[in-house]
């Protein structure tokens, strides 16, 4: 099969297109023929070597975390899916590799594709959808009537999280550029802050939840918009001791995480705010809950561009540029020749 391989770590190092054997299937996995793969910033961060400590992959390997496709084979302990099922998933850590024609997926991480989505639309959902779900529903325990501040509202996670929070009955504030204000308002944002001309610290007050996806400076400033007892959840770090314990990392690595997060945890405690780090995980059951919302029309995908499989490196570069509105997707099966990517207005 064809795959795009990371041969060794390096900043902006191109992935190599190669012919590789079909992946070996474990007993609790199904083999999925990849029709489309979502592209996420974590793919470029892994390529650059930023996650070597917490995700020590063996190279060479294919990158890619999001998949939509068709089941072509099932392991002996896989009972939930059959050959021919249209499915989607965020594949598990250490089994990534959706920038390829086939990928094995743990049955517990898989869900049937929403009936009302194309393969490309479905591939845009799993990682950002599960991130938003685990942050807002699981960690924040978001409730109707609460106020939530979602940073970078026009990005992949932001476009999904705004819709999820609004469906949950929360009042939503977000940051974006003036050019994307109409997009995030259409998704449900109540308060839109132009980050180029406004400071969110001056505009927001007494929020129950902040979903941080930006740098450490923005993370620290986010404390000021939370009420006492509020929750600051970061998907961009720093990792906290609870994360290290959950992953059973070595004592030295847990100590490093404790030191890296000491400042923000101390500041949060002084304001009676709870800080937590989220590194999302694959979860088929949660994805099925997301499917229900999509099929009800409560959440819709937002895709900026669909790139052909041959342009996988260009798709990664576009995600890194920070210009994407919503998600970037690679069309693997039936991919057309590259035209630099096409826009898909689904907002």
UniProtKB/TrEMBL annotation:
Coiled coil: none annotated. Residues 10-330 form the Enoyl reductase (ER) domain. InterPro entries: ADH-like_N, ER, GroES-like_sf, NAD(P)-bd_dom_sf, YIM1/Zinc_Alcohol_DH_Fams. SMART domains: PKS_ER (SM00829). It holds the Pfam family ADH_zinc_N_2. PANTHER family: ALCOHOL DEHYDROGENASE RELATED, RETICULON-4-INTERACTING PROTEIN 1, MITOCHONDRIAL. This is NADP-dependent oxidoreductase.
